């Protein structure tokens, strides 16, 4: 089984990413369950604006699109900015919009029988809003969102330290992240054994 992590931090490599650090708790648990994990830091790529899977010359999205189609599990990780997902996360979701109209050989939307979850970090409140926005979009695209397929970390309203700078709250975020990974993996296994069929015509 394969998983793809799309980190939607605003920080280009090689800058440390708080969001990636928490997401790695989830991916480590997936690896322990035999899942092969690939990781993409979206801000490092040239993701052209649009809602097609290939926007033409210079567009790096087709490679990510291929990774999505090669993965049964998707984790989207985003920081919270102004109580909302990052602009990079919004760009990723807009590019994934094309998948709604893409189908496999059996007429199923290509996101069917794939599962997804969300990781959020930030030094302000708003994590549940970010989770609902990203999770709702992924459900529209066709992904299955298991119960409690998310984790987050923040230290309340207002400015504060970053995830990598403060150990408070890590135990809860990590425990929730491991549960998220377990729920994603178990649901992916269930869908592999009993796949969704094409929607009724």
Automatic annotation (TrEMBL):
It comes from the Bacteria. Coiled coil: none annotated. InterPro entries: Flavoprotein-like_sf, FMN_Rdtase-like_dom. Residues 1-130 form the NADPH-dependent FMN reductase-like domain. This is Flavodoxin family protein. The lineage of its organism: Bacteria, Bacillati, Actinomycetota, Actinomycetes, Kitasatosporales.
């Amino acid at each position: 089984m394969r998983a793809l992590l799309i980190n939607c931090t605003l920080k280009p490599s090689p800058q440390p990413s708080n969001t990636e650090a928490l997401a790695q708790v989830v991916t480590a648990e997936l690896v322990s369950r035999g899942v092969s994990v690939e990781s993409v830091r979206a801000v490092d790529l040239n993701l052209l604006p649009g809602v097609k899977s290939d926007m033409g010359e210079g567009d790096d999205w087709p490679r990510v699109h291929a990774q999505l189609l090669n993965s049964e599990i998707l984790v989207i990780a985003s920081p919270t900015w102004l109580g909302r997902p990052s602009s990079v996360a919004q760009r990723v979701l807009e590019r994934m919009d094309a998948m709604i109209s893409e189908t496999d050989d059996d007429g199923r939307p290509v996101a069917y029988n794939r599962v997804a979850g969300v990781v959020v970090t930030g030094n302000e409140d708003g994590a549940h809003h970010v989770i609902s926005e990203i999770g709702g979009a992924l459900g529209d695209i066709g992904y299955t969102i298991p119960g409690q397929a998310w984790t987050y970390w923040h230290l309340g309203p207002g400015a504060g330290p970053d995830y990598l700078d403060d150990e408070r709250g890590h135990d809860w975020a990590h425990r929730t992240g491991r549960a998220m990974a377990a729920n994603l993996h178990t649901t992916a296994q269930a869908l592999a054994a009993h796949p969704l069929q094409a929607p009724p015509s």
